[in-house]
Design a protein that fits this description.
- It contains 16 helices and two strands.
- By secondary structure, it is an all-alpha fold.
Length: 476
């Protein structure tokens, strides 16, 4: 059984890698998509935004579906849908078809993501869990920092004459192979301890709550994705203003359901644990910093330094290399190294240094991200009760995606606001200042983090084991 559990890890990691990658991989394909499909500005924006919006909006509900109907079953359903939707993207004959397929991809990715986190928690214990989450963090981070590189290589390399379609069709053989192996390699997870539910409790999907939380997330994420591109029109501000009351109604509904003996979509008691709540803030800052950096680099290297996409991708490989090397041995010094790397990058840009010097600074930034990514994710989940793991994993995924969107939006707003003067260096430095502030927030969490009160793992004998402390779980 131990061998089978470890054999299942690559299947889970392939799923999380391709779904994270697809958030970024389409960026460099947009010009080719526009020319080939004769797509307008709104259509090409939604090729990117439609995926992220559907992904972020569906995570909490998808996590609850896993709790109700089985995480393995929902994983297989999500993987099958993602593979089919990727084929639909690659075969799209017009812009409307492509946008619809991208939204379907986002729904499938939302269905997959919480199940991966929960299956990792169920399948592995103690030191094995720390190892599994280390590889999970590596997969997520590598997909995030290499998305534009891989997209540029696929578009420029034009394999089999597919052009931009290769960015999506590459998922089909990967998804099909992973799907074929799920029945054999995904064993039954070790049963977690479950608390006896009150006799009056009725299990089921809270459809009203699902509608409210989805509407609230759309009201936040949609204007953040599209608002800057469209010059912050009135509808964007109305959506943001409406998100507060909608989410407040969701919270009231969840409390009312819990008080009446019904099982809510999301157990709000989990936020009472300061380790979980503050950990979510750190996750949002880390993913916002990562996404904001990817956004700034794509503009600075190509438009600021005049590099072509392949040369810009070559510089960005230093970020990937640093991340991968450090993620193999994560530890407590990730936040200081991340902050140091961003400060070095700021200095390099300020001195108008050469691209190879930018790459050296990115190597340090990548190392900082690799050191902290999986320990931080593991520590956040250390406060989760097993019976609510799916829904809470959905919260974590939502925070990751929303943090990334916020990071791009805030960084982009500062960047383009400064660029109005025509100075690329000043615009990049202003954006990097935002990212340094984000890294300082991650460092503050690493230094001041509260300890989790609730253990989440269990041995086969039914005794609880505390998850290793989040910023030390990767240490030897």
């Amino acid at each position: 059984m131990t061998t089978r559990r470890w054999a299942a890890l690559p299947v889970l990691l392939v799923a999380v890698f391709v779904t994270t990658l697809d958030f970024f991989v389409a960026n460099l394909a947009v010009p080719s998509i526009r020319a080939d499909l004769r797509a307008g500005d709104a259509a090409v924006q939604f090729v990117v935004a439609g995926y992220g919006l559907a992904y972020a909006a569906g995570l909490i509900t998808s996590g609850r579906l896993g709790d109700l109907y089985g995480h393995g079953r929902m994983f297989r359903a999500g993987l099958a849908l993602f593979t089919l939707a990727s084929a639909g993207c690659g075969l799209a004959g017009d812009a409307a078809w492509l946008v619809a397929a991208r939204v379907a991809q986002g729904v499938a990715a939302a269905l997959l993501a919480p199940q991966v986190l929960t299956l990792l928690g169920d399948l592995y214990r103690g030191a094995d869990r720390a190892t599994a989450f280390r590889w999970y963090g590596t997969a997520v981070g590598l997909a995030g920092v290499s998305g534009q590189v891989i997209g540029g290589v696929l578009v420029a390399g034009d394999p089999l004459g597919l052009g931009w379609r290769a960015c999506f069709l590459v998922n089909v053989p990967l998804g099909a192979a992973a799907l074929a192996m799920t029945g054999r390699l995904l064993p039954r997870p070790l049963p977690p301890p479950r608390r006896a539910a009150p006799r009056t409790a009725r299990a089921g999907l809270d459809l009203g709550g699902a509608g409210l939380v989805t509407a609230g997330q759309v009201a936040i994420v949609l204007p953040l994705i599209e608002g800057r591109e469209q010059g912050w029109p009135p509808w964007a501000w109305w959506c943001l203003a409406a998100s507060g009351p909608i989410l407040a109604a969701f919270v009231r509904r969840q409390r009312r359901l819990a008080g009446s003996g019904r099982i809510p979509l999301l157990d709000l008691d989990v936020f009472a644990d300061r380790a979980f709540a503050w950990g979510l803030v750190a996750v949002a800052l880390l993913f916002g910093t990562s996404a904001g950096l990817s956004f700034v680099l794509a503009l600075y290297l190509q438009d600021g330094l005049g590099l072509d996409p392949l040369a810009a991708g070559a510089v960005c490989t230093a970020l990937n290399a640093g991340f991968f090397a450090a993620s193999l041995r994560p530890g407590r010094f990730g936040a200081p190294v991340l902050l140091l790397g961003l400060c070095l990058l700021y200095d390099v840009v300020a001195r108008a240094a050469q691209p190879y010097q930018v790459a050296m600074a990115l190597l340090v930034v990548g190392a900082g991200m690799g050191l902290i990514m999986s320990p931080l994710l593991s520590s956040v989940l250390s406060a989760v009760r097993p019976e609510r793991a799916g829904a809470t994993a959905g919260v974590l995924g939502t925070v990751q995606e929303t943090g990334g969107v916020l990071g791009c939006t805030i960084t982009g707003t500062v960047f383009f606001g400064t660029l109005a003067g025509g100075d690329w260096r000043s615009a990049t430095l202003a954006a990097l200042s935002v990212l340094v502030a984000g890294a300082l927030g991650v460092l503050a969490h690493a230094v001041l983090r509260p300890r989790a009160r609730t253990p989440v793992t269990a041995t086969s004998g039914g005794q609880h084991d505390r998850q290793p402390d989040g910023l030390e779980c990767g240490r030897p």
